[in-house]
């Protein structure tokens, strides 16, 4: 790249090489708003933040449902850039590799001169946080994350426009570099997945087999538990804890934490129970118990439990976290749901109070050690992602000198 720089006059871009120009989105891209009037396309596409354009069938149960009225959808070709007009400012933008159609909430952009402009370069440019933040000033709406960017305003946003051969060089450079970073991220993600599996196996082993490898064993006659120490009892969950319904509450800015099936999501000025308690999901996220040892409130998507005195509370939590196969007890089709009756009648294992405490103390220490390792790996992923974003921004705005 040319070592001489000039001021672009645009705050989010800064200096650019002297051989580069500044151009507007509307000068580089056509807005494609051709509708699927004759249902020529039945391949419905979607756009997911940080993932890109995918077939709607791969989206899963996330976000809005596809409309049956696909005649109103916009047609998309491979190499078109797709932006969610409502969510582009938080990263919902990407190049399509598919032919299909998508909802009118999306802007479809196609380079005016596909022989001269490198769509991959602009795909990287649009992925930068600096570009996305710039769009906030062009949006209509109150909430930033739901601010609609009209095409009339998007067209006038200014972009760096390197010579075509430079665009291609930058895109190729970023393809190589970001793929290596993503490989490193994948290694960390795989390590996290395996460590989570190991953590779960440690919990399950401790609460079903105990800590004494020489203990005499017997058949629990519970399909997913198998052998247990001979002195342990097989009981229904209601023998260890009583499941109680959550209730509606009045919200305040600060106060006692309010739990739903997914964890804390607000505060109230009173508490429903002092704790300690194991919280169990009733609707939605039903397979992720929480343990609370301070005053709290739960709403009706979550159960709380009153733990009977002859049981150690943290052991009850580890039991709930490890050996209950929640998939077996789900009812209803739309949202996973549980009932008090189902939970009360699930068979679990019960050691003596002293052994429960010993096991829970052992697991607290072991899980804390593993959680520290997990956090280290998550921190590495965060740093790698930050490096990748910085690398992309520096490259697409000409701050990195590449051999042309």
State the major sheet.
4 strands, antiparallel
Report mean pLDDT, rounded to a whole number: 91
- What's the total count of β strands? 24
Total of helices: 8
Query: Could you give the order of strands across the largest sheet?
Result: 4-11-8-9
N- to C-terminal distance: 6 Å
Instruction: Specify the overall morphology.
Output: elongated
CATH architecture of the domain at 21-161: Alpha-Beta Complex
- Give me the Rg, rounded: 28 Å
The CATH homologous superfamily of the domain at 21-161 corresponds to DNA methylase specificity domains
Structural description of this entry:
With 404 residues, the chain is α+β, with helices and mostly antiparallel strands. Among the domains are: 21-161, Adenine-n6-DNA-methyltransferase TaqI, Chain A, domain 2; 233-350, Alpha-Beta Complex (Adenine-n6-DNA-methyltransferase TaqI, Chain A, domain 2), CATH 3.90.220. The chain has helices spanning 25-28, 119-126, 129-134, 151-154, 164-209, 313-322, 340-344, 353-396; strands at 5-7, 15-17, 21-24, 29-31, 45-48, 52-55, 74-76, 81-84, 93-95, 100-102, 106-111, 158-161, 217-219, 227-229, 233-236, 241-245, 251-252, 256-260, 263-268, 277-281, 290-292, 297-298, 302-307, 347-350. The strands form nine sheets. Strands 4-11-8-9 form a four-stranded antiparallel beta sheet. Strands 16-23-20-21 form a four-stranded antiparallel beta sheet. Strand 8 (81-84) and strand 9 (93-95) form a beta hairpin. Helix 5 (164-209) runs antiparallel to helix 8. It is elongated and about 80 Å long. The mean pLDDT is 91.
